[in-house]
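Listing S7. Sequence submitted for prediction.
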Amino acid sequence: MLNKYDVIVVGAGHAGCEAAAAAANLGSNVLLITMDMAKIAHMSCNPAIGGIAKGQIVREIDALGGFAGIITDKTMVQFRMLNKSKGPAMWSPRAQSDRELFTYEWRKQLESISNLDFWQDQVVKLLIEKNKIIGVETLFGIKIYAKAVVLTNGTFLNGLIHIGKSNTVGGRIGEKSSIGISEQLREFGFETGRMKTGTPPRIDGRTIDFSKMIEQKGDENESRFSFLPNIKTPNTRRSCYITYTNPETHKILKTGFVDSPLFNGTIDGIGPRYCPSIEDKLVTFSGREKHQLFLEPEGLTTVEYYLNGFSSSLPADVQLEAMRKINGLENVKIFRPGYAIEYDYFDPLQLYHTLETKKISNLYFAGQINGTTGYEEAGAQGLIAGINAHRKIYKLDNFVLTRDQAYIGVLIDDLVTKGVNEPYRMFTSRAEYRILLRQDNADARLTELSYKLGLCSEYRYAIFIKKKNAINNIIDFIKKKSVSPKNVNPILDENNTSQIKQKTKLEKIILRPQININDIKKIAPEIDFFVSEISELKNEIIESAEIKLKYKGYIERERLIADKIKRLEHIEIYNDFDFDKINSLSIEARQKLSKIKPKNIGQASRIPGVSPSDINVLLVYFGR
């Protein structure tokens, strides 16, 4: 270990791993500090990556040169594409991973980066001079200096674990919390708060009667997260299982409410609205007689299962008794009970879009420290923080993604413009340009940017160009190729759509909702020729071509809207502009604008409390 680094990353969760890898792969000398080398990229919650909107984020991380997608593919035990019954803007990949293998592969990936060092220790103090970070001090009293520091502390900042009436200091069960950093930053004027998250019991698969549950297998024609071909996945696949709570379960759970830290005032932190504990569900949805639960396998070589939907901080005996009233869990044994954890977070309004703090230069925050929840949101922030920490110390331009470029852009803009008052989770509904930000085109949106940054390898870029050309060639072919009624009408009959009476372009045929590109291939097998150079990505290429053809009008319309609104992003607001001098702005707008200090009119327009009339005032003031 050296005494001086370009970048120090504190914490080796999903944000820390992406941050350290990005900065190191761009050329910085990086030190990754973690309290436990055996818990690198540990899946603290469920052993799964992706889901609604989260899957899009993972594909974006991959397209930018991050590793979340690659590691997920290497450790996958099940893959499903969610929302396939809806339009492609809603399709979201999700995979179950082997928890232990996931940590192993992440560590192996990080250790392959030559200019990335590791140090197992606890950071207790930041070294700051003249409002600029210059390094960190550890619990061992070691001072390590750096030009930039990225904090990715997860749930460890003053973490407090609750199970019934019992509570203990910790960042995860069995692991100590991090003390000192929150207190120091508060002295510098940072606004902080408390949030709460929870996790369900882990149960013994040997004591589960799966015959009483609904089996949920993965996709038959499964896909991958990474855009790279030939990433090997485990040979074995595991099923998930569905069961339900019932009135008897609920009755037992309610007997523990008197000892629940959620209801007796012990917990102050705000919990996640979209992933509530089972006791929260019973109160919020008091009229419901059952709640769906998912049993997710923890890996290929363990009998442990994760009981998704049963997060709880109730006493352990109440949890067990209630579970034994659930179909299939009558004889269940648990490895460890569910618990709640409270931790410190910092209001993300105190950050720039680069995730650098406004109060201390060269200090970056990423992950749950910013009030987010989820591996995917954390990894995305870590990637952007790592990139920008490197670029800042090498005096390069900031790297910021916009809302029409990526879900990552939506995520970060929401955080630094709107702030959070509860754990932030990404949904497709948060993005106003969902048709542009599909999971299938993340590489088309971001790989070129990554290549210019220096993160995308020549190998990845060459594959991207081949794929891009193949998609364009298929589209051009379908636009130009005409088919006769004799050839195409049998296919139209098969799909219950009207026949044609004269030669027609294939493009018109594929626009019919009953027809897909596999139907087209029956009369135009030449399509396969266009993917012969990159056959490993054949299905992905053909699917992307079909989406671009079928949704061309919607895509073009949304692009026009995005470009129109984007013009506001180019109207810059002067640094340290005094909004109080514009009396025609509402008082609330002046207060919000002065606090957040937006960089442009576009960002100002998204601040809660800033009305359209306030934006018109700013447009007039800045000469538009």
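Caption to Listing S7: primary sequence and predicted structure tokens for the chain studied. The mean pLDDT is 94. The CA atoms of residues 285 and 291 lie 9 Å apart.
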